[in-house]
């Protein structure tokens, strides 16, 4: 997969997220749901977007650390602001990044006492942010299906590309 394809896949997923957020009412976006461990759609959107922000900032510094993200409550509480951040991230994906080596810092203990530093690169982290976004979109899909029957999702919202390919292969098999 080329970097152009990888950026395109990320933009496709973020576009699906944008369409959903545009179609939600403010309360649907920001209301915590007990079925989702008191998380709101907005909290999941914030979480997704902040991983992209960490990647972009980390690429400039040569070191990515998703654990130190800002956790900006304005993104999770203000749907219009979340859309602005989302649109900015989609545009930023088009900026050219060389696939230089990066360091990835990650907390391993949950207590702030064990931080590992690993070798990675921009393309690998783009794959991670893509899969991470899909995972959280699957949770968002559960919230929408349980709580907001009138909200429509795009066909493959929250479904991994490998799952889509597998299902299509199963459908196209002749018995």
Descriptive keywords:
175 residues; mainly alpha; Four Helix Bundle (Hemerythrin (Met), subunit A); three-stranded mixed β-sheet; 60% helix; globular
Give structural notes.
This protein is mostly helical and 175 residues long. It has one domain (3-172): dinb family like domain (Four Helix Bundle (Hemerythrin (Met), subunit A)), CATH 1.20.120.450. The chain has 7 helices and 3 strands; from the N terminus they run αααβααββαα. A 3-stranded mixed sheet has the order 1-2-3. Helix 3 packs parallel to helix 5 (79-93). The chain is globular and about 45 Å long. The model has no long low-confidence stretch (mean pLDDT 94).
Count of extended strands:
3
Distance between the termini: 32 Å
Number of helices: 7
CATH architecture: Up-down Bundle
Topology, element by element:
Elements lengths: L2 H21 L2 H5 L10 H21 L1 E2 L8 H5 L1 H15 L7 E7 L7 E7 H26 L13 H12 L3
Parallel strand pairs: 1-2
Antiparallel strand pairs: 2-3
Helix pairs in contact: 1-5, 1-6, 3-5, 3-6
Q: Gist?
A:
By secondary structure, this protein is mainly alpha-helical. The protein has helices at 3-23, 26-30, 41-61, 73-77, 79-93, 122-147, 161-172; strands spanning 63-64, 101-107, 115-121.
């Amino acid at each position: 997969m080329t970097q152009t394809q990888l950026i395109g896949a990320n933009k496709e997923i973020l576009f699906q997220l944008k369409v959903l957020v545009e179609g939600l009412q403010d309360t649907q976006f920001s209301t915590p749901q007990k079925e989702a461990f008191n998380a709101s759609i907005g909290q999941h959107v914030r979480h997704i977007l902040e991983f992209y922000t960490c990647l972009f900032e980390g690429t400039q510094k040569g070191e990515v650390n998703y654990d130190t993200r800002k956790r900006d409550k304005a993104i999770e509480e203000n749907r219009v602001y979340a859309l602005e951040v989302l649109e900015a991230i989609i545009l930023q994906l088009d900026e050219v990044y060389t696939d230089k080596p990066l360091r990835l810092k990650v907390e391993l203990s949950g207590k702030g006492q064990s931080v590992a530093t690993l070798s990675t690169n921009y393309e690998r982290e783009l794959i991670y942010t893509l899969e991470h976004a899909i995972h959280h979109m699957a949770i968002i899909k559960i919230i929408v299906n349980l709580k907001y029957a009138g909200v429509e999702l795009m066909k493959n919202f929250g479904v991994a590309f490998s799952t889509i390919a597998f299902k299509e292969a199963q459908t196209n098999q002749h018995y």
